[in-house]
Design goal:
It is globular, with a radius of gyration of 21 Å. Strands 7, 8, 9, 10, 11, 12, 18, 22 and 23 form a 9-stranded antiparallel β-sheet that branches. By secondary structure, the protein is mainly β. It has 2 domains: 81 residues, Immunoglobulin-like (Sandwich); 286 residues, Distorted Sandwich (Beta-galactosidase, Chain A, domain 5). Helices cover 6% and strands 49% of the residues. The protein is built from 4 helices and 26 strands.
C-alpha cells in the first residue's frame, strides 16, 4: 500500500496518536508493520480531509524505523456515536459505553458525564446530574467535564445563579467514527440570560483509542465574535476546559494536585501558570487521575490553573488579577467583531498516579509529535 518512516525524536513515545494528512484510496483499518514493532491505525476522511491516523503504543527515544502500511481487518473496537434525540450523544467503544456528551438546552451548558474508565463508576463527580450517597454537593455548576466563563461582556456564563448566561448547542456539524480516533463537532451559541447571542463557538472533540491504561481526548474551540466585540473578563471563575474530580479523589480527601514545574497541592498550584496540571488519587481501591495539557498555540500560554482541594481544576487563561492578588493587573481579552480565536487542550485520563502516568511524555507527544516521512 505504502511505506512510512517514523522518527521518534528525543522523546520516548507511549500511547502517542499520530495524524498524517494523506489522501489514500483505501478507507478503513490498517496495520503499520515494522521490523521490530507493529502499530494499529486507519485511513479515513472527515470533513473533506483525508488522513492516516495511527497509535504508537511504545517507541524508544532516538529510534527510527520504516513501516509497511497494509490493509487489515478490524484491529480494535470501533468508537461510535448514537444520538439520543436532542438530549445527548452516547459514545461507545465497541459495545461499551465510554461516556455521554450532554447537550440538552435545559442545561446551562454542554458537559461530558460520566467517565467510567478502568471499571470505575466515574472518575469525575456525578453531582448535580446524579445524586450519589457520600458525594460532595457544593458548586452545582461543576458538571463533570465542561467549558464556561464567568464574565463574557459582563454576563456570567459560569455559575447557575439567578441571571446567568447560557452555552446553547444549536446542532452537530460532524460525526466521524473510527478505530483509532473518533471526532464530533458542534455549533454553540453563548448567550445572555434571555438567550440573546453573544458569540459563536465551533467546538471539536476527538477521542483516541489509546489502549487499556489511557484515554486521550482532544478539545478545540473556535470562538467567533459574530455580534459585536466580545470581552472575556479577568476572573478566576472560569475555565476553557474544566474538570470536577470524583469526591474520593479530592485534594482534601487524599488526592494530589501537581503541575509541570513540580508544584504540589492547592497552595502551590492554584492560580499558577504551567503547561499541564494533574489531579490524581485513589477510588474504589484503584489509583487513577486526569491530566490537562495546555497548547502552546493558545493565547496566554502557559495557562493559569484554577485548581482547588475540593476537586475542581480548570484551564483559566484570563484570570490574572484574582490569581496574583494584584488588582492593578488586567488579564481580560477583547475579541473584535468578525474575528476568531482558537483554544486547544488535551485530556489524559490515566491508570495509576502521577508517576505511573508519565505526563511529561504525553505532553511531548502533544506538542512535539514524532516525524513521519512518506516513502512510497
Amino acid at each position: 500500500m505504502l511505506k512510512v518512516k517514523i522518527t521518534a525524536g528525543q522523546h520516548k513515545r507511549i500511547a502517542c496518536p499520530v495524524i498524517v494528512p494523506l489522501d489514500i484510496d483505501y478507507k478503513g483499518p490498517v496495520k503499520l508493520k515494522g521490523k521490530n514493532v507493529e502499530f494499529n491505525g486507519e485511513a479515513k476522511t472527515a470533513g473533506g480531509k483525508s488522513a492516516l491516523i495511527f497509535m504508537i503504543d511504545t517507541l524508544a527515544a532516538g529510534s527510527e524505523e520504516i513501516f509497511d502500511v497494509e490493509k487489515t481487518a478490524e484491529n480494535r473496537e470501533k468508537i461510535t456515536f448514537k444520538e439520543i434525540g436532542s438530549e445527548k450523544l452516547e459514545i461507545y467503544k465497541g459495545k461499551h459505553l465510554l461516556t455521554n456528551y450532554w447537550c440538552d438546552n435545559k442545561f446551562s451548558k454542554p458537559f461530558i458525564h460520566p467517565i467510567p474508565f478502568f471499571g470505575l463508576s466515574s472518575v469525575t463527580r456525578n453531582f448535580p446530574m446524579v445524586n450519589v450517597p457520600g458525594e460532595s454537593t457544593d458548586h452545582k455548576h461543576h458538571r463533570s467535564i465542561w467549558t464556561a466563563w464567568g464574565d463574557v461582556n459582563g454576563i456570567d456564563c459560569w455559575s447557575e445563579e439567578e441571571g446567568h448566561g447560557f452555552i446553547i448547542q444549536k446542532y452537530f456539524t460532524l460525526f466521524s467514527e473510527g478505530y483509532t480516533s473518533a471526532n464530533f463537532r458542534m455549533l454553540n451559541h453563548w448567550t445572555d440570560r434571555n438567550r440573546k447571542k453573544l458569540l459563536e463557538e465551533n467546538r471539536s472533540v476527538t477521542i483516541y483509542n489509546a489502549g487499556e491504561d489511557f484515554c486521550l481526548i482532544d478539545f478545540e474551540s473556535k470562538y467567533f465574535a459574530s455580534e459585536s466585540d466580545v470581552v472575556f473578563g479577568d476572573t478566576k471563575e472560569g475555565g476553557l476546559l474544566c474538570v470536577r474530580m470524583a469526591t474520593p479523589l479530592e485534594g482534601d480527601k487524599g488526592g494530589r494536585i501537581a503541575n509541570a514545574y513540580g508544584a504540589l497541592g492547592e497552595e502551590e498550584c492554584w492560580g499558577k501558570k504551567a503547561p499541564w496540571c494533574d489531579y490524581s488519587g485513589t477510588m474504589e481501591n484503584k489509583k487513577v487521575g486526569i491530566t490537562l495539557f495546555d497548547s502552546p498555540n493558545n493565547p496566554g500560554y502557559p495557562v493559569h490553573w484554577h485548581a482547588r482541594n475540593y476537586g475542581l481544576f480548570a484551564a483559566n487563561p484570563f484570570g490574572v488579577s484574582g490569581f496574583t492578588g494584584n488588582r492593578q493587573l488586567n488579564g481580560s481579552y477583547t475579541l473584535k467583531k468578525g474575528n476568531e480565536m482558537i483554544f486547544e487542550h488535551r485530556m489524559l485520563i490515566h491508570k495509576g498516579g502521577l508517576e505511573e502516568s508519565v505526563p511529561e511524555i504525553h505532553f511531548n507527544n502533544y506538542i512535539n509529535p514524532p516525524k513521519v516521512t512518506i516513502l512510497l
